[in-house]
Task: structure prediction
Amino acid sequence: MTPDEASVSGVPLKTGTATAPRRLPEGEGTSARQFLPACAETVESSDFVFGRDKEMAELRERLSARESFVLHGPSGSGKTFLLQRAMQASPEALYCPDAASPQVVFQSLALALLASRDRFVRSCFRSPRVVNTKSAISLRGIVLDAVRRGTYLVVLDHLRGPAAALSADARDLMFYGGTPVVAVARSAHMEDLGFLTPFFALRSERMRLGNFTCSQATQFAEEVARRTQLQATNLPEFIERVVELGQGSPGAIVRMLQMALRPKYRLDGYVKTSPLYIDFRLAWHAENAL
Ligand SMILES: Nc1ncnc2c1ncn2[C@@H]1O[C@H](COP(=O)(O)OP(=O)(O)OP(=O)(O)O)[C@@H](O)[C@H]1O
Ligand SMILES: [Mg+2]
Result:
């Protein structure tokens, strides 16, 4: 993903900073330039959270209740986005952005413990660089020990059907260590939650984040277009298409509106909807394929 495509609204999706000035590729004509905003708001740094008051309140409540739960919903529905904001009120939360394997999880947790100035972990690792030099077994031992000593909460984001080993570690944290675990996945089924599925069997242990309804999605798209100062001769029709094609996914809507700012998808003040959508779909499917 290019910096241009990083999140419009808050936490960057993957890499890049939306605050960097956008450069026009060489050879872009003035017709493309004149419709580009001089200083589009990079909602990146703002507190803009659209239409999720109830969900934000529930997340904050669940985090402060210190009970394990799974947050699930389709790609782009805003799980990472909302959770990161809700966690601001929970400094004891240790966030693992990519719970792909035990090694990656324990490295993230060690870094999060260092960042939260955990005394025990600081006595084991003098600097974050040392974390990568530790063997998987010693890293696991240190992190589990530190987490049990403190009153932390562990957030495992982007779970993709965790295998038995990672699930066993999460179970140990929850049941023997007394540390709540927030599992984040695209569904609460085996394909996404893997061996963790049986640990979140009760309905009360599951929180679903759905996509926006059609009218919410329209308001959201209009608001994002306004904030990014997106202008185009065919703006109303383009927004209508984005809402239809995005199927209520805030992530998909934001992505398409961001793409519309790029000269590649503009012609004489128009947004070229079809090529934009084709490229969007290719990128979206490639990113979301398991
Ligand atoms: N309520 C919202 N208000 C404003 N922007 C939002 C909102 N929800 C989502 N977004 C936008 O959608 C983007 C995608 O959201 P996010 O990455 O949180 O999706 P996700 O559910 O974690 O997807 P995945 O399953 O692929 O990890 C965010 O970076 C943000 O720009
Ligand atoms: Mg996510």
Notes: The radius of gyration is 21 Å. Residues 149 and 177 are 9 Å apart (CA to CA). The longest strand covers residues 181-185. The beta strands are 69-72, 93-96, 153-156, 181-185, 206-208, 266-267, 270-271.
